[in-house]
Amino acid sequence: MKNRIAYCGLDCEKCDAYLATVRDDQALREKTAREWSELNHAPIMPEHINCLGCRAEGVKTVFCEILCQIRRCALQKGVETCGDCGSLNECRSIAAILANSPEALKNLKG
Known about the structure:
Elements: H1 16-23, H2 26-40, H3 62-67, H4 69-77, H5 92-100, H6 102-109
C-alpha cells in the first residue's frame, strides 16, 4: 500500500492540503482554509494548510496530527491502516468516510 493512503483509506495525494504543501501553492492554501473553515465552522488559516499525509513523516494539519480520531485509534492499535483492523466493518468512526467515499474502502481492501 502506498504511503500516501491515509489510515481511513482516503488518498492524501488528492487532498488539497497535501497538494498545497508539495507545490508550495499559497493560493490553494488560502482557498482550502476558506472551504475548511466553512465546512467545519472553525477558524482555519492558510498557515494551517500544510500536510505531507497522515502516515508519512513530516508536517500534518492540526486536524490530522491531533484531532483525527481515526488516526489516533490506528496508532494506538499499531495497524498500518484501518483495513488491518478486525473492527473495520463495525467501526462508527470510519463509517461516514466509507459511506461517502467508496474509493477509500477500495484502498483499504486493495
